[in-house]
Amino acid sequence: MKKARVLLAVEGAPEAGGAPAVDFVRALAREHGIPELPAGYPPDAVEFLLRVNFTGPAEGLAMHSLREPKTGPVRVDFAAGTIQQRAKDDLRGQHLVRAVGTGVEVLDATAGLGRDAFLLASAGNRLHLLEREPAIYALLTDGLRRAAVDPDLASVVERMRLHCADFRDWSEAHRYDVVYLDPMFPRPEKRARGKKEMVFLQQLAGEGEESGLLAKALKCARARVVVKRPPKEACLDAAKPSFSYRGRVSRYDVYLP
Predict the structure, then answer these.
(1) pTM of this prediction exceeds 0.85
(2) Is residue 31 part of a domain?
(3) Residue 76 within a domain
(4) 227 and 136 co-located in one domain
(5) What one-character-per-residue DSSP string does the chain give?
(6) Domain that holds residue 15
(7) What confidence tens digit (pLDDT) does each residue in 62-102 have?
């Protein structure tokens, strides 16, 4: 039997309060071609499962890797303590916000799990997010859905608009003050060094190609392009930035069109 890439698993019967969330997730999966797990389907014939929880603190979608179960489930939770701490701890002094600015319109062209986009929206920016992998897009959509009904988060996620699209196919007629790039395409020899969650997402999204992303971003940006890199990683497309903000974990290279 050919191994399925991603399947949606709706396990058990939702209570009345959870039914709308399940309907939302099922419709989302159908729209983006993610089949539901058939009864009796052997678990070893699946690489990734999108599991739905109906209630409790982990309510919503979570992605499980069946090829590397030790990585644990991945979900989007903007209420998580680590994100909230960054959002409240000298937000405008953080390198990410200093590099991008505040009060501007930003295209996050490689959204991933949306954490950087949430921090930028918390700083007062308007965000457009692109995510090309349907399963990651589903996780992010579900995270935004839950945040939109949280009184502490709703005003932030109102400034975030998500699109399931590949930046390479995005029209250059769309212009933004800032284009933000966080490419998830490490060279093969560096793949094993990443965080477990990043390795998980790289496996799910597959290998990509960084070349050309910067040139495309410069055509879409009115004011600047910001590229997130590991501190010692080479510059994107070997292009020297106008300036950089360097931290212990990340470096933000700023290019002025």
Answers:
(1) yes
(2) yes
(3) no
(4) yes
(5) -PPEEEEEEE-S---TTTHHHHHHHHHHHHHTT-PBPPTT--GGGEEEEEEEE-SSTT-EEEEEESS-GGG--B---TTSHHHHHHHHSSGGGSHHHHHH-SSSEEEESS-TTSHHHHHHHHTT-EEEEEE--HHHHHHHHHHHHHHHT-TTTHHHHTTEEEEE--GGGS-TT--EEEEEE------GGGGGGS-HHHHHHHHHH-----TTHHHHHHHHEEEEEEEEE-TTSPPGGGPPPSEEEE-SS-EEEEE--
(6) 4-71
(7) 988 887 777 778 889 998 888 888 887 778 889 999 999 99
